[in-house]
Write a structure and sequence with these properties.
- The chain has about 120 residues and is mainly β.
- It is built from no helices and eleven strands.
- The termini are far apart.
- The chain has strands spanning about 5, 10-15, 20-25, 30-40, 45-50, 60, 70-75, 80-85, 90-100, 110-115, 115-120.
- Strands 2, 4, 5, 6, 9, 10 and 11 form a seven-stranded mixed sheet that branches.
Length: about 120
């Protein structure tokens, strides 16, 4: 059974930092894309970042470029999202998702999703 489990969410003041983790199990980590998405109350889900597990290529939404960094530790089958200079508008449930990496790295409807972790940024 494939599982993606997120952790690391919490409450932080604006300008602060959090690091989210996404641990994969039952999942061949080679040649995959692992992405972070978020959904705020009353809003549509949006892509945040993606990383290719084999080549480390990354892709970010414009809204988080320069503030968020995604990385992977393939030995631990874990993808991280380092979030710095957080803003109240970053408040959302953050999900990791994964699947076969396509030619272009992007925010697709991946096969596997985690249950989400809440990030709340107070202003």
């Amino acid at each position: 059974e494939v599982q993606l489990v997120e952790s690391g969410g919490g409450l932080v003041q604006a300008g602060g930092s959090l690091r989210l983790s996404c641990v994969a199990s039952g999942f061949d980590f080679d040649e995959k894309a692992i992405c972070w998405f978020r959904q705020a109350p009353g809003k549509e889900r949006e892509g945040v970042s993606c990383i290719g597990t084999s080549d480390g290529t990354t892709y970010y939404a414009d809204s988080v470029k320069g503030r968020f960094t995604t990385s992977t530790d393939n030995a631990k089958k874990t993808v991280y999202l380092q979030m710095d200079r957080l803003k109240p508008e970053d408040t959302a449930v953050y999900y990791c998702a994964g699947g076969v990496r396509g030619y272009y790295l992007g925010f697709y409807n991946y096969d596997y999703w985690g249950q989400g972790t809440q990030v709340t940024v107070s202003g």
